[in-house]
Amino acid sequence: MNREEGQSIRRREFIQRGIALGVAGSLTGTVLSACGSGAANGKGGPLEVWGWMPTTDPYATVFAAAGKRVVGDGSASSYHYTFSDFGSYPAKLKTSAAAVPPSVAQMPWDGTYHAMIAAGLLRPLDDVLPELPRFDPGVLEQMKFKGRTYAIPMDLNTLSIGYNKAIFAKLGLSVPETFDDLLALAKPLRDAGYQPLALPLKPGGDFSTDTYLAQVAYTDPSGTAVRRAEQGELPWTAEPFTRAAEQVQRLQKSGLLIDGASSLDIGGAVSVFGDQKAAMMYAVGNYLFNQLDQAIQGKFEYDMFPFPPPSAGVKPLATGGPAILWSVPKKAGNQDGATDYLKQITGRASAAMMVKNSFVPAFPADIPAHVDAHYRRILELQRGAATRVVFDPNVFVALRTAVTALLSGKGGAQDVVNAMQRAAT
Amino acid sequence: MFVSWRVKALFVGPAVAYFAVFMLLPVLAALGLAWTSWTGFDIGQASWTGADNFVALVHDPVFGKALWHTALFVLLSTVLLNVTGLLVAMLINTRARGHDFLRVAMCVPLALSPVITAVLWQYLLGPYGLVNQLLSDVLGITGEPIGFLGEPALAFATIVSATVWQYSGINMLLFYAGLQSLPSERLEAAAIDGAGWWSRTRFVVLPHLRPVLAIAVLLNLIGGWKVFDLVYVLTKGGPNRSTEMLSTYLYEQAFTINNVGFAAAIGCVTCALAIASMLVRRPLAGAEYA
Q1: What is the ipTM, given to two decimal places?
Q2: Contact assessment for residue B202 and residue B219, using Cβ atoms and an 8 Å cutoff
């Protein structure tokens, strides 16, 4: 055997030993992992919950408490919460849903919900509903897709116009009772050097669809138009939608909107409202109380009122809809744990935690006699709230783009409804 | 020395595998998806639609806008990045006072992620941001806020400016390296022959930098066609789609509307434009370096 042959054999031996070691390692890993998952399966497996609320947010503490109770019940071996910021959350959820989805997922209201149902990725939850509390019927109706429910509402967002009570008092202004009264506030506020209404319209962080749907709440008293249009039973050019777009156009032309609204996001709106540069801001809800308190720092008091009705004598309606929705992917590993999580997150203990954090449960809850004034006001407004959500992703994007354009002075009311109709077809 | 094909494969294999899995496969997949209708969930539900997505692109006004905006962005950013990079590199090359500081200052934005750059510019140029506050509250020059991000033309200009601010350092470094390789004798000879600053630049410096310019322009063109992060964070394609780019429109179609086939068609067009941009290298570099 010459030197080269000897080296060649050593090299071959080296490679063979390496391969053997690799295979042995892989097998050991597989066996250990199987043992691990077997142990986990003994308690239903881990409970993986996904959402876009940061782990430091009070919401996450409500989630964690419910998760711990699920583990305590023995429905899951462990609880883990994965946070993704809202910008990237829908894409991550959609891409994982067909492969390795979480046990329970917070569901966005941007069209992802219907898209995932249509793709057959979500489990119908109608069989769980009898075991859950009685939800706000209007909200639960919004969750239905072709007669079946695929998401459970945990709490509600009630959106209203916040106003600076000190500025209103100084200028002798009162809370508007009609839409015309609201538009009439523009002149006295601008004359006094204030920006009237801080309405965020920056694409992606805009409240254009909410502004539009707040008008639909009045033009469609039945509360069924959006769902019927989504199911093709009503054209998007129907009267309730056209009249709502006309109201939005009047809002734009009145001079009520803050200068620079088209590049303003919600953080910017809170900032100008807190600095008392703007006398009003939209959309104020319990989700914003902490941020507002930090921005205002006790300099003034604020209160809220819904977008006023088109004419006097009509009851003002706050609008909004579900805040946190939970869905269970069909391919979720621990289905029992997921079901138990839905029960826990809508149970009495969760409700108490939500109330403590000024969230509005989507189901009956015990409200203590002494709660924060803003929270009490939100609860009052919520009683008469009208819920409107557009889930069709094509229509949602078309509506958002067209209303943002309309509020920026581009296009007309008819363009909004035409854009929705085009997107739907 | 003889090296067996197995050893060669061992060295080349990982790179080829990486390229095949992470570059070639996605490109081929996108190329295939562009001829289908797919929501992005279950690939089994994808259905063959032929050239429908490409036909739809031709008739889609938003795509037309996005294509025009991206082309304009590519043109403006490429010109400005190269002019800025070249001028600063020449200034640094003179060893004038403060050239070290300038060199570092030009490179600092490169260390930032584009998302952070966008957030920074947002704070500065938002309707009630630092610049608007300075102009209205401190200096009293403007009454109402300037829509740096809210007026269509200004928003576009802001995006181009932010891009130039962030990336001109790369061009500066490329040109500076090119200038370092220019023999000083050539410049001295030209000066002795009576050539002024402009003549030396026009007939000595620029011809020497042609191959560098070709590479810089090529990188800027390719980077320009796929611009995304800065635009997405700063304006998300708004207001009223006035800064909509091919990439932001692709993202909306793929991840908001779940129209993955159509988005893939946009991706194919973007890819084709980036590949076509490579044609500029040869004429720019000149026959000697082509």
Answers
A1: 0.77
A2: no
A157-321+391-424 — its CATH code? 3.40.190.10
Contact B238 A95 (CB under 8 A): no
User: Over chain B (290 residues), what is each successive 10-residue block's mean pLDDT?
Assistant: 86 95 93 93 87 96 96 97 95 87 91 92 91 88 87 94 95 95 91 91 92 95 94 90 95 89 96 93 75
Q: How far, in Å, CA of A340 to CA of A346, rounded?
A: 10
Domains of chain B: 58-182+194-285 (1.10.3720.10)
Residues in chain A closer than 8 A to B144 (CB atoms): 259-260
What digits encode the pLDDT tens for the residues A8-52?
545 556 555 555 555 555 545 444 444 444 444 446 799 999 999
A418 neighbourhood in chain B, CB within 8 Å: none
Q: How far is CA A120 from CA A116, A149, A327, A328, B177, in A?
A: 6, 13, 13, 12, 57
In chain A, which residues have their Cβ closer than 8 Å to the Cβ of B136? none
Long-range contacts of A66-73 (CB under 8 A, 24+ apart): A66/A341, A66/A344, A66/A345, A66/A347, A66/A349, A66/A350, A67/A341, A67/A344, A69/A344, A69/A347, A69/A349, A70/A337, A70/A340, A70/A341, A70/A344, A71/A43, A71/A47, A73/A340, A73/A344
Looking at residue B140, the DSSP 8-state letter turns out to be -
Q: Please list, residue by residue across A189-219, b when 16 or more beta carbons sit within 10 angstroms of its beta carbon and e when fewer do.
A: beeeebbbbbbbbbbbbbbbbbbbbbbbbbb
A44 Cβ contact partners less than 8 Å away, ≥ 6 residues apart: A74, A75, A76, A77, A334, A336, A337
Of A62-66, A381-385, A407-411, B231-235, the one with minimum mean pLDDT is A381-385
Residue A240 pLDDT greater than 80, yes or no: yes
Q: Token digits for B164? A: 């130039």
A14, A114, A189, A263, best to mutate vs chain B, most B CBs in 10 Å: A263
Phi, psi of A395 (to 5 degrees): -70, -40
- Tell me which architecture the domain covering A47-153+324-358 has in CATH: 3-Layer(aba) Sandwich (3.40)
- Taking the C-alpha atoms of residue A23 and residue A205, their distance in angstroms, rounded to an integer, is 51
| DSSP-assigned letter for residue B110 | G
A295 near B CB under 8 A = no
Could you give the CA distance from residue A328 to residue A339 in angstroms, rounded to a whole number? 8
Domain ranges of chain A: 47-153+324-358, 157-321+391-424
Q: Looking at beta carbons, which residues of chain B come within 8 Å of A204?
A: 236, 238
Binary contact (B128, A401; C-beta < 8 A): no
pTM recorded for the entire structure: 0.82
Does any CB of chain B come closer than 8 Å to the CB of residue A368?
no
From chain B, the residues in CB contact with A95 under 8 A are: 40
Q: What is the pLDDT of residue A42?
A: 42
Q: Are A47-153+324-358 and A157-321+391-424 equal in CATH topology?
A: yes
Q: Kindly state whether A332 is in contact with chain B, defined as any CB-CB distance less than 8 angstroms.
A: no
- Return the residue of B nearest to A113 by Cα: B256
Q: Own/partner pairs for B140-144, CB < 8 Å, 24+ apart?
A: B144/A259, B144/A260
**Is B175 in contact with B209 (CB distance < 8 Å)?**
yes
Amino acid at A110: D
* CB within 8 Å: B41 and A115: yes
Alpha carbon of B95: minimum distance to chain A alpha carbons (Å): 43
